[in-house]
Amino acid sequence: TEQKVICFSVCQLVEIQIINSEFISGFVAIVVAACALNFQRAVGLLVISLVTLFFLVWDWINDRYGNWVWEKLHPIRELISKNWVWIRWMVNVLVLLAVVCWLTMDTAQLGTRQLVSFFGLLLLVFLMLLFSKHPFRWSWQTLLCGIGLQYGFGLLILRTTFGFGALAWLGRKAETFMSFSNAGSEFVFGTNYTDHFFVFKVMPILVFLSSVISILYYIGFMQWLICKIGLVMQVTMGTSPIESMAAAGNIFLGHTESPLLIKPYISGLTLSEIHAVMTGGFASISGTILGAYISFGVEPSHLLAASLMSAPASLAIAKAFWPETESRNVTTRDHHINMSKNLLEAASHGASSAAALVANIVVSLISFLALLACLDAVLSWLGGMLDYPQLSFTLICSYLFMPLSFIMGVSWEDCFVVAELIGTKTFLNEFVAYQKLSELIKRRKAGGPEYVDNVKQYISVHSEAIATYALCGFSNIASLGMSIAALSALAPDRQSDFSSCGVRALIAGSVSCFMTACIAGESICFLTTFCFFSPTLITLKCSVTNLGQTPSNHGWISTVTCPSHYILYRSKITCLAYNGLFISLYLFIININQNRVTAQSDLISQHIMQNTLGNYQTIKVIFR
């Protein structure tokens, strides 16, 4: 009988290996065929395949030869350990010199404006250290490496053509992917479902994404991805495995769902680790909520970048604001948070679990907006007693948070508007703040007047980007109560500890978002720049022409003069509207090579014509 069982098990393993081999062979054949038919069209599939292959091979090598390699590297590890103090100081000095040199050259090219964001970042870090729970007990490795990872992600994503192009591509694919929820919405609510945009258009996206994430958990992809990201932060920042895994999980999950990843270990966490776990939840948004914000018209690439950049920042700030003073007594083990038995059950469970999230968002918005209207009415009534009826909650927030928005790099004329959004997000809800931001974006795209009755109707693209990063987190008073309740349900014996860490974690989570916004304010200029690679000084004047019609006057976009390899910062690049047609150029890169001009926008295709008029070159953008 035992021989039969062993034989049956061996046959099963062989069968699984054969099936896996056939599947891999078939997939490779599909990739090769797609590349042979149209390589340009198959680039995305090829990149995904190569990345997947790399990690599969890496895991296979690590499982088989990881211990052997680690033992062979023992002499090198011993040498590094003996000289670690000198190596660490040398690396820190080199990094500091590199940052200073880069800032000097960058400032020489782009001007001094981005220095405001840089010094704003330093000020936020200084304040966290100044009001630390245990001053001078923080880990410089955690702080510097965390900010370094955040800065590195920002530069890679926002200041390189490859990084921004990859993120913009990912954002467009995310928008396309989320649009699949329209099929379900139209079937359930009818063809006019967009008449009630928020409930019947936005909320179904949350249901769809929740179902997809549940499926990814069932097949094990999410656990694998979170562990890899957490391992990077653990190795570089020196944080514990538990808080690293929780911080990585917050990139994809909400502040009430990510603690499930570390459920078996919550009771044994130190106060500093509890603070770090809560901070990570406040510093990011969940993947499902991200879909809703994208549907509002907020730039997807900014939301994706903010979610990625805030993870290391939250750990760095959390460990600086509440340094570790206790011994760590927990280690990671295999974790499973999805109990579904098959793929269909996982999809159904994910969709069902989104019902509570949708209901919570809808009732919260109704309540918060009603309370805000009531509060504004009361403040207006009180202000009227002093001949100041325009007094409102948003006006108070604009003055309260105006210095903060300025040090993040927001232009002075937009500071009060962005400050209103930050106040709304902090005291009410980030959903309400993003809804207001979406209204500003729509007004800018509509091309109306910038001021109406001395009230600013929209802000620049640069300020919109900074606001997007600053708002990208659950750091508000309502989320504080939800986070304490969720953690208390998982570990009732630590409820008092969760409550004691809550307020400091909320502040640290908010600061993490503001730090990400500072880095964006310094780096985001690539999104709104004209990039020239001409060896001579040129002046470009851009005009807008509606295809098939002649406008009464040309819409002036920007006139700039650039030397070779120079990137000129523009805070606002906007086309005017003609005959109801309007477009904003988020990415407009012009390469001048001899007499040929090419341009590309991530919003709409354009034809470019070049006419030489004396010493000037005029570029006409014709929409189709």
Secondary structure: elements and pairs:
Blueprint: H1 2-37, H2 43-72, H3 74-82, H4 84-110, H5 113-130, H6 140-158, H7 161-178, H8 181-189, H9 197-219, H10 221-237, H11 241-249, H12 271-282, H13 287-295, H14 300-321, H15 343-384, H16 393-400, H17 402-407, H18 415-427, H19 430-446, E1 451-452, E2 455-456, H20 461-471, H21 477-490, H22 495-523, E3 529-532, E4 538-546, E5 559-562, E6 566-569, E7 589-593, E8 596-600, E9 606-613, E10 616-623
Helix pairs in contact: 5-22, 6-7, 6-14, 6-22, 7-14, 8-9, 9-13, 9-15, 10-11, 11-12, 11-14, 12-14, 12-22, 14-22, 16-18, 18-19, 18-20, 19-20, 20-22, 21-22
Structural class: alpha+beta
What is the terminal separation in angstroms? Answer: 75 Å
Cα radius of gyration in angstroms: 26 Å
Summarize the amount of helix as a percent range.
55-70%
Largest sheet properties: 4 strands, mixed
- The side-by-side strand order for the widest beta sheet comes to 5-4-10-9
Note the beta-strand portion: 5-15%
What is the number of helical segments per DSSP (H or I, 4+ residues)?
A: 22
The total domain count is 3
- Which residues sit in consecutive blocks of at least 5 with pLDDT less than 50? 526-624
What is the average per-residue confidence, as pLDDT, rounded to a whole number? 75
Q: Which descriptor suits the 3D outline?
A: globular
Please tally the β strands and state the result. 10
